[in-house]
Amino acid sequence: MTGLSHEQHQSIRQLAEARVSGHGLGSRFYGDPLLHQADLESIWFRGWLFVGHSCQLQEPGDYLALQVDTEPVIVIRGDDEQLGAFSNVCRHRGTILCSKSAGRIGRLVCPYHQWTYDRDGSLVSCRGMDDDLDTSNLSLHRFAVEETAGLVYVSLAESPIPFDVAANQIGPAATVQGLQRARVAATVDYQVEANWKIVWENNRECFHCNANHPQYILANFDHYNSDDTSPEIQAAIDEATRRSHQRWTDSGLAVTHTSTGMASFPAPGPAGWVTVNRTPLVDGYLSESMDGRQVAPLMGDYADPDVGTLRIRTMPNFWNHSSCDHSVSTRLLPEGPNRTQIQVTWLVDATAREGQDYSLEELMPFWQLTSEQDWSICESVQRGVTSRYYTPGPLSPAKEYNVDALFNWYLDQLTTVGADPK
Amino acid sequence: MTGLSHEQHQSIRQLAEARVSGHGLGSRFYGDPLLHQADLESIWFRGWLFVGHSCQLQEPGDYLALQVDTEPVIVIRGDDEQLGAFSNVCRHRGTILCSKSAGRIGRLVCPYHQWTYDRDGSLVSCRGMDDDLDTSNLSLHRFAVEETAGLVYVSLAESPIPFDVAANQIGPAATVQGLQRARVAATVDYQVEANWKIVWENNRECFHCNANHPQYILANFDHYNSDDTSPEIQAAIDEATRRSHQRWTDSGLAVTHTSTGMASFPAPGPAGWVTVNRTPLVDGYLSESMDGRQVAPLMGDYADPDVGTLRIRTMPNFWNHSSCDHSVSTRLLPEGPNRTQIQVTWLVDATAREGQDYSLEELMPFWQLTSEQDWSICESVQRGVTSRYYTPGPLSPAKEYNVDALFNWYLDQLTTVGADPK
Amino acid sequence: MTGLSHEQHQSIRQLAEARVSGHGLGSRFYGDPLLHQADLESIWFRGWLFVGHSCQLQEPGDYLALQVDTEPVIVIRGDDEQLGAFSNVCRHRGTILCSKSAGRIGRLVCPYHQWTYDRDGSLVSCRGMDDDLDTSNLSLHRFAVEETAGLVYVSLAESPIPFDVAANQIGPAATVQGLQRARVAATVDYQVEANWKIVWENNRECFHCNANHPQYILANFDHYNSDDTSPEIQAAIDEATRRSHQRWTDSGLAVTHTSTGMASFPAPGPAGWVTVNRTPLVDGYLSESMDGRQVAPLMGDYADPDVGTLRIRTMPNFWNHSSCDHSVSTRLLPEGPNRTQIQVTWLVDATAREGQDYSLEELMPFWQLTSEQDWSICESVQRGVTSRYYTPGPLSPAKEYNVDALFNWYLDQLTTVGADPK
């Protein structure tokens, strides 16, 4: 494990303290290798990272492989139907065990010399070694893994922070969406030339939506905020909320976000890295689709399409918008200080058949366009914030409260956690 | 602002002092990140940088955007017809304001959240902020900008060196060329894998011309030097000078460089970073074109094509060769220690119509070929000088006096200026 | 010359001492710039590096140019028929003298200003310099060069280690192959994203052959080892050895490797960086070709195709497998800590005519496939060993004895040699 020296921690602490409250972060947070190392230590190699969906890992042997900055990770469904997460690196000579990003395998057989691991990571065969080799110390390096409501998470930490705060929030609210029995309809991978924090800063406000997201703003209320919510807008939200409440009574659903603007996230405290809420859509929109019409069969336990959108977010790498008929997950993975690998995944009900029950042409554009509009902005911000003439500006209290909250959350992780001796 | 430490200055000074007079620079000057930082501090972020031509910035709102190493800069014509230069970075969240390299705009509106700046850089609109926000401190970071004889310069320094030494030299000599009322006929951008100094070393001698520039040497006398100027050659120069003088008497023009070899540049002292001279062309050459014939209508105040070439150079990033009928500007911008972005621009009289008065096929090859021949050499030099077995060799006193002068000028900037506490 | 500081040597020594015997190397050996610098100093800029074949340098003026990490090197046949090796960098301004990788030249004329060097590296012409310039100090930087049995080697060291240990081993065993009078039939260049040591680790065991080299294992016995050599396998080797011995008696050939597994290499001591042996092929294989049939005319002094394979290896950058009819050389050159440039060259007898006596379709696949199978593995290992969760695993005593020997040899070079003050 690579750690940071006391001097490096001091240097990071000074940078953090130099931030003016209610303003952005300084240039070094977006490109300096030391800061990136600190981000890895205190956040990426410590928190819970979204990996993918349970429905991608249904059968024993199903796996997903990903790379968290320099770290190859594999998550695999075990023979006992439980998930296991491991370093995707052979204990013999260090070869990547599974080089594809997904698949199904019997045992984990290293392609180099066929060291073979059970689905629980234990070494069961290593031809050519001395008979007295103690293989019990040669299991794959194990990471913590959890799943809740069809979402799979891994933590690379030796002593992970509690996951129950996520399960407690996501489980009750998201089970109705039926992600456990969904199917991946499409996946798009992006390489975005921006620090991962810039992607989150962008995600945590809809101040930019009017000018940049012509599709998104037709369906949603987030781009209005406390300072520009007219009585008409609030009345529309109230009406949408009332309408939904009436329909949802039977199924126990409830709108949990009844105002304009985005739900507060992230927040201080041990549960501050996760949030779930249900939000009404604009009248006429049953789904986050180009024209608001339903574009696939109802998912999960929904009996009526008018369920607004379910939104789940977990720091540092996941958000999801789910409509009645489809669900879109976004997964971030850093690759150095100025690049982020982003995967966007569209899910539909497991029984929906492409070409008959839905088409990708109708399913994908809303979030594909919105995502790509965001990535383009993020790359432009990356170029600007690394200028020596950039001084972090003031944030709008009415519209960028979550960006401020993001910086507070981030600096708290960086200085409190990162300061611990390793 | 990033500064260099006292120890770093000492280290740079030692490297500078280790150079043997009349010889080249050591390897570290061409690839070491510390030296590149010093180049930025003492030269690129301090001197006057050529941006483009006034004729590209004619109307209020016309802008040119460029990147000086990591620094995004925008120059824009204001409502008062004066130019303004600014950091091309929004004071809010750091987004690049203008992502295109040229255009015309009303106000500078950030594409992210529409913070809006007047053409003088002052913040005039920032929706969503508290009413009591003091916007007077949120103008765009302003840089110094100057124009003379149709050439536009910017300095990123807080206290720029005097520009009048450039205006005093370029103005009187170059106004006749009419660059103010010219038009860009073509632009070619190059990414050259060589340190910016190597590009200048190449530019400051014509010792390499015989073997590398078959087009250039037909038109010019520079590739002869004091050691190989035969009486016949000198007679040809004298004849060309006399012929030109007779014709130019009416217009007040004068040949100012009447010998073989290149004009001395750069030079010590506060005016040493700029030079202008008029040079005769070989008999039969009215223009720096492939066959010497005029390839476009006369520019500026010229009544006769036989005006030789006007040559303007300013350290660290500009040179221009102007014939009677067209003008070619070369602009350098560093991008890290071993890459230089180079833009070559061809200008003609504003009234000249492509296809009727000139064709790009006749206008461009002379300087396009010559430029590309040079960039190819520069990339080969970059690979060689970074070898650990490279020892800087002796310069030819007769042919490389300007390369020696360049090194003296450079090291003077680096050690005198760079040593100042910041 | 760049050297390492005392503190850096100490740091490297500690890393070396931390290695557990019989196990792999830690992550830092595969990506850390300091370790790469140490590899260059103690191995690449000190040992003997294979350049190419004498038959590529037959006539005075024939040259081969290559780049050893950052160092451009040229080897040229002199007027006296002796080889010379030089830094491929002009002593004047540092230009690369020969930018092609092979060719024939009269003198070495710098393309920039035509400084001209004789084929012995001495400066014979430098137009434009003062007459009293002492050119005797301006010869090209000379490196040591040797050739033996048609193989050409260079050393960048000021005081190279003895080459005679290589000549004494390679000469007597390899002359019969006739590489001196061979001809290059084909060359393929690869850029492999792996540290050079990973390429050698892969080369030094055939433990991976069963699963990865379906072509190679049909022809060879190396993939069997002491732990899995059945009596039948050993009988086949004995039979092949006996058969070969009988046929070779007249020509003085001898099988020198009569067991399964790979010949021990590298080894401690001054001769440990070179090895040569002759190995029987599986019954039915006369050549390392796809079906074992002879694919080109006999080479060298062979009168009978049944000569097994001759194998030559020299650390740090060469191995060769020669059959009766063709010879395949592999040359490694590092390019930074995580990239290796690899050139594979196929040779046939100088009189063999392509299309008549042999076809590339029959000649190349055996080693082209085997090589590319290896490069793919190496890139996967590079990604894994740089993980922070990678801990070097135990090596198989029966199958990976040479990998262990490689690490011992390597660390010995690094710590003993690298510790010397420079």
Give the structure's gist in a few sentences.
Three copies of one chain form a homotrimer. Chain A is an alpha+beta fold and 422 residues long.
Task: Please identify the structural class of chain A as seen in this structure.
Answer: alpha+beta
Portion of residues in helices of chain A?
25-40%
- SSE ordering of chain A: HHEEEEEEEEEEHEHHHHEEEEEHHH
Number of domains of chain A: 2
Question: Main sheet of chain A, how many strands, which sense, barrel?
Answer: 7 strands, antiparallel
Write the CATH architecture name of the largest domain in chain A. Alpha-Beta Complex
Oligomer: homotrimer
Taken as a percent bin, the fraction of beta residues of chain A is 15-25%
Q: Helix count of chain A?
A: 10
In the predicted model, the low-confidence regions of chain A spanning at least 5 consecutive residues are 418-422
* Topology-level CATH name of the largest domain in chain A: Naphthalene 1,2-dioxygenase Alpha Subunit, Chain A, domain 1
